[in-house]
Amino acid sequence: MSTFVSGHRTFDKCVNHPDHGYIGQGNVMTPTQFSSYIRPVTRTECSGMTFPSGRLNAFDLKPFRRHLPGLFASLVDDTTAEHDAILYWFFHRVGRQRVEHGWILATTEHREIGSIVTGPTQKSRWVIDAAAAWVCPPPET
């Protein structure tokens, strides 16, 4: 696997840690990334069962809701009203404190829909830009 480089030394060190470092597409839960597929509000079928409209979407978004920034939450809600998407959240820890860097919303074909930087310094922009290039690579020509 390639080495992830954003220019933020602490984040890069965490992502590239040999035992628990990782950055990837789709459903991921690591010390630096939490991401998940989000089903659209219109999806009502799952595992042979039928649910009320919006129930599966609410279930998928529940772990993110209290952390998701307001304006970005609107983009997520608008997008997933009728379409599947992947929601990515990037951060690292210093002791017990989480240092948040930002969010990326992508299609299930790994094309970026939008992103937001929520971190404390310019280095968070570097993290989100590098993460977007990693999880939403440009199409091959």
Provide a quick synopsis of the model.
The protein is of the alpha+beta class and 141 residues long.
Describe how the helices and strands are arranged.
Blueprint: H1 9-15, E1 28-29, E2 33-38, E3 45-46, E4 49-50, H2 55-65, H3 70-79, E5 85-94, E6 97-106, E7 112-117, H4 122-135
Antiparallel strand pairs: 1-2, 2-5, 3-4, 5-6, 6-7
Description:
- By secondary structure, the protein is an alpha+beta fold.
- Helices cover 30% and strands 27% of the residues.
- It is built from 4 helices and 7 strands, in the order H-E-E-E-E-H-H-E-E-E-H.
- The strands form 2 sheets. Strands 1-2-5-6-7 form a 5-stranded antiparallel sheet, sandwiched between helices. A two-stranded antiparallel sheet has the order 3-4.
- The longest helix has 14 residues, at 122-135.
- The mean pLDDT is 96.
Secondary-structure-derived class = alpha+beta
Total number of beta strands = 7
Q: Tally the helices: what do you get?
A: 4
Percentage of residues in DSSP E strands: 25-35%
- What is the domain tally? 1
Q: Averaging pLDDT over every residue, what do you get?
A: 96
Our Rg estimate from Cα atoms comes to: 15 Å
User: What's the main sheet like?
Assistant: 5 strands, antiparallel
Label this structure with key terms:
single chain, 141 residues, 5-stranded antiparallel sheet, 30% helix, globular
